Each structure stands twice: as C-alpha cells, then as structure tokens.
Amino acid sequence: MSVARLLWSPELLTYDFGAGHPMAPARLDLTMRLVEAFGLPDSPSLEIASIPASRDDLVTSVHDAGYVAAVQRAARTGEPDLERGLGTEDNPIFPVMHESASRLVTASASLAEAVWAGEIQHGVNVAGGMHHARRAAASGFCLYNDAAATVQRFLDLGAQRVAYVDLDAHHGDGVESIFWDDPRVVTFSVHQDGRTLYPGTGSPADTGGPGAECSAVNLALPPRTDSARWLRAVDAVLPIVLREFRPDAIVSQHGTDAHGNDPLADLNVGIDAQLEAASWVHSLALELCEGRWVALGGGGYAVVDVVPLVWSALVAEAAHVPIAPGTPLPQEWRVAAEEMSGLEPAKRLGRGAVAWRPWSEGYDPSDAVDRAVLATRRHVFPGLGLDPFLD
User: Fold this and answer.
1) Which pLDDT tens digits describe the chain residue by residue (391 residues)?
2) Helical pair 271-288 and 307-318, crossing angle rounded to 10 deg
3) How far is CA 52 from the centre of its chain?
4) Using CA atoms, how far apart are residues 112 and 109, in angstroms rounded to an integer?
5) Domain-by-domain residue ranges, the chain?
6) What fold, for 4-191+208-214+224-359?
7) Residue 6: which H helix or E strand, with range?
C-alpha cells in the first residue's frame, strides 16, 4: 500500500477563468513539473493516480441542486447570475465551468473514500481547496467547494468527527458556513483579519451555531504577521483544539497566499513556515486519527516563486519523503519555469528553519499577534474546558 496518493490529470487545468485572472492554471502545471523534477514519482511511498469520473452526487452533498443547475445554465448560455456569484469579476463564466469544478470535487472527495477504506494513509489534490464557495453561491474564485465535500464524504462514510484545517491567508468562510451547525466538524482557519482582507469574515467571536458552539475556530491575524509569529499563533491554538476534539480524519487546505510575495494578501509568512505547519498537520493526523489525512491546495498567486515550491513539498511531506528546507531547486525546472513565465525563479526551497517562541514562554500584551491569539483562545477554549492562558 502506498502511503500517499496524489491525484492528477491535465484535465484539472481546464478550471480556467481566462487570461489575466489570478487563478492561473500555470500554478498547477509548474507544481506538477516540480514534483517530477524532485523525483517524487519514483518514490515507492507515493502513488500518482488519474482522477475518477465526475460525480454530481458529491457536488450536491454540499451544494443546493438549484445552484448546480444555475452553474450549468450560466456555462451553457454565458449569461451572468450575479445573485449566485456567477459572471462576476472574481468568477467569470467559462463554457466548461460545471465540468471543471465538479472534477475538483470528485477528485478531493474520492481521496476521502480511499483514505477511509484504508487504501492509503494520505491523499493530496493540489488543484483543490476551493474553500469560499457556499451552498448556493460562487465566491472568491470558487465555484464548488471541494474541501467541504471532502469533509462531508468522510462523515457519510462513517466518521464521527472530522477536523478541517485552513492555512490560507483568506478566511475559509465557505467551509465554515456549510458546517456552522454541525458539531461533528471543527473548522480551524488562520487568516489575515477580515477587517483588512476579503472575505471580511472570520472573527474570533464566530464560534459556531446552536448546538455546535466552539466548532468554528478563527485565528484572525494582523497584516504583515511574519513567519515566527504565524507559527507561534498556529501552535498556540491548532494542536490543542484538535487533541481535545480527537477527529477521525483531517482535511487541510494549504493556500500559499500568506507569503509575503503574494499580490492578494498582506501577510509575510515564508515558505519554510508554511511547510512547518504542513508537517504539524501531518503529525497530528498520525497522532490522532491513524494518519487519515487529505491535503488540498487553495489560494496562492505568486505563481513561480511560491505556489509550486510549497505544494511540491506538501506532496513530499505526505509521501513521508520530506524535502529539506533550503534544498536547491532542480535546474531543469528553473529553466522551464522561466520559459513559461518570463520570471527568474527562486534557486532554493525556502531559507531554512524558522526560530519562533512557543506560547508557553508567556503572553506579550504589547504584541498584536499575541492579542489575536488570546482573543481566539478566550472565545473557544472555555467551551472546551480549557484555560485560555495556560493550556
């Protein structure tokens, strides 16, 4: 049995809003080229499989049938449906939008099926992570919410508790809203404060609906939060919540747009910190739920120097063959990336380990990040029987 399965097909590149749109298919193309250049397909612990045939029942597990029909109609006619977020600047209409978006959902949810069946420990879909789509509307480049469908698939297969971990710079609002009233799902999102960034949500006071209190965990950080403080914040909340919740499976979203080079957000989290956080999610899956973990892509618009680096290393992490920080990038990939983009790629995978201060060393009220962390802990921890300052 392979440890990890990476789903890939060139068909995933058809999720394409057109020239000039930030959600460029080149992000995925360059990622897969780097996966190959690192020699990951030769690892016996990694299986690269084609995506299965699309299934609309997986789409309608988290989306209203009327909305799915609206997507199909908009694709067929080209007419906007602004009430449902179709035909906006963020979500332009393109002819194969239903097929492309449902393909992402099926790919991600099928990984949940394989993980739950014990065929693999971990699944990866770098094309997934469309976390903004809501039950009845497109939002933020996301037509269908494959992340939510993956969580739902685990539940439908028998999982009693599923944890969703969102590392994107933008709040994982779509997944949170879909499971707002479901105590079987904990959604954790670390993101730039919604008062300063789309979608404007994700306050630490938003903790879940009636009967599902403290199931939504929002860690809203100030702009320009750096790697050390970001890691401190994540460590101060995520592992404690997940250990208390004891999930049967973990679904994680690894949008890379928290990086300082990203044009659509204002955080300053380096590649090394993002990979460190991915390794934490991996370790928590091994510790808490026998390794049942599905990792997805997401946002990220520094197409050459960030996205392919983080996601190829995520694949390596899931395959238990992690790539050391600072590893030189293969020259053949750098040449291909420059030819495709006209930009000079980075020479190395990050810069090396990040030094950060754990929460146990004390709370600093003068630090805006520490204040944000404490706000989250104060809203969530008491409901879990935990002390906001000590646990």
Assistant:
1) 689 999 999 999 999 999 999 999 999 999 999 999 999 999 999 999 999 999 999 999 999 999 999 999 999 999 999 999 999 999 999 999 999 999 999 999 999 999 999 999 999 999 999 999 999 999 999 999 999 999 999 999 999 999 999 999 999 999 999 999 999 999 999 999 999 999 999 999 999 999 999 999 999 999 999 999 999 999 999 999 999 999 999 999 999 999 999 999 999 999 999 999 999 999 999 999 999 999 999 999 999 999 999 999 999 999 999 999 999 999 999 999 999 999 999 999 999 889 999 999 999 999 999 999 999 999 999 999 999 988 8
2) 20
3) 21
4) 5
5) 4-191+208-214+224-359
6) Arginase; Chain A (3.40.800)
7) strand 4-7
